[in-house]
Amino acid sequence: MLAKNLVWLFFCFALSGNTLTTSCKKEKTCKTSRTLGLKTSDCYKMDLKKFPTCLPPNVEVVELSYNRIRKVEYDDLHRYPYITHLYLTDNLISKLDDDIFKDSTSLETLDLSVNALFRVPPSIFQLPTLKTLYLSQNMNINVAESLENAKPILQSTLTKLDISYITEDGYTTDFPDFSDLPLLAFVNISGDQFNYLSPRHFAGLCNLQILANSNATAEFENDCDCWKINRWLAERKVVFTDFQCPNNKEDCIDDQIEFDDLEAFSKCMEKLQNIQFALYLKKVWIWIGVAVILIFFLSIIIVYIKWRKNKQKKRLTKRAKPLIRPPLAIEHKDQFQLMERLND
């Protein structure tokens, strides 16, 4: 019975292998090379309709821009666990399952721009290594809802986010709450139309350095909020384009930033410092681990060299030792007996 089961398993394995080989022969071949030391599969503009299944299993960079892929599922990414950079710009993707990136624990850059997405899986904002996310030109995508559903985000590493041109003419969207993404340094909201803006929307962006906001428009809860936002960003040395305000600056000179907004900024700074310290400790422990491994191997090498030297020394000593006893080494008693025999 056991033998039959083993034969059946072997047959199934061989059949699946042949099936995979056959499908790979039919699939268009992407160019694989090394780019900046990373294993890269270049499938750019190959008119692909499905996510390729025959890439190297250890591929790190996958370029799939300008194809006709409509769907990407969990299994498509599960077979490539080492992907760090995934480019899917200008495809026809309209939906992503919530668990699609469950095993993408090495992903650092994800480009989903110029697709047909109405929402992104909240799990994207939970990825432990994601630093750059492009979502531009996915018309009417609800980023604010996805971010809200992703909370609580314990430790985001996201530093660059592009959500530019995601609203059609006559359509407005909510400004996302970025308070759980304290590392964000670059945000692109160019061409977007927001329901309203106030200083509290930027209070959670305590690490913001560049805000690309050309052609971005919004209503304001208070006419003076526009000037307060401009002042808030300028005081924190953020590079941005001044929002066009509906009233004169002189009308809002006496308006101050709300205490709640300042408190939110302080909380953001506290999160930022905690995350930066945690990342610093992680690097320190990595270097300590590397040092321990190096010391271990150096110790082995030193012990081995000493062992070889001792072995060679013993071998040389053994060769130098006389095999026959020299005449001068004859004992006194034997010498006396020899003289008696000669006298006889």
UniProtKB/TrEMBL annotation:
<keyword id="KW-1003">Cell membrane</keyword>
<keyword id="KW-1015">Disulfide bond</keyword>
<dbReference type="InterPro" id="IPR001611">
    <property type="entry name" value="Leu-rich_rpt"/>
</dbReference>
<keyword id="KW-0407">Ion channel</keyword>
<keyword id="KW-0812">Transmembrane</keyword>
<keyword id="KW-0813">Transport</keyword>
<keyword id="KW-0406">Ion transport</keyword>
<protein>
    <recommendedName>
        <fullName>LRRCT domain-containing protein</fullName>
    </recommendedName>
</protein>
<dbReference type="InterPro" id="IPR032675">
    <property type="entry name" value="LRR_dom_sf"/>
</dbReference>
<keyword id="KW-0732">Signal</keyword>
<keyword id="KW-0472">Membrane</keyword>
<dbReference type="GO" id="GO:0005886">
    <property type="term" value="C:plasma membrane"/>
</dbReference>
<keyword id="KW-1133">Transmembrane helix</keyword>
<dbReference type="Pfam" id="PF13855">
    <property type="entry name" value="LRR_8"/>
</dbReference>
<feature type="transmembrane region" description="Helical">
    <location>
        <begin position="284"/>
        <end position="305"/>
    </location>
</feature>
<dbReference type="InterPro" id="IPR051432">
    <property type="entry name" value="KCNMA1_auxiliary"/>
</dbReference>
<feature type="signal peptide">
    <location>
        <begin position="1"/>
        <end position="21"/>
    </location>
</feature>
<dbReference type="GO" id="GO:0034220">
    <property type="term" value="P:monoatomic ion transmembrane transport"/>
</dbReference>
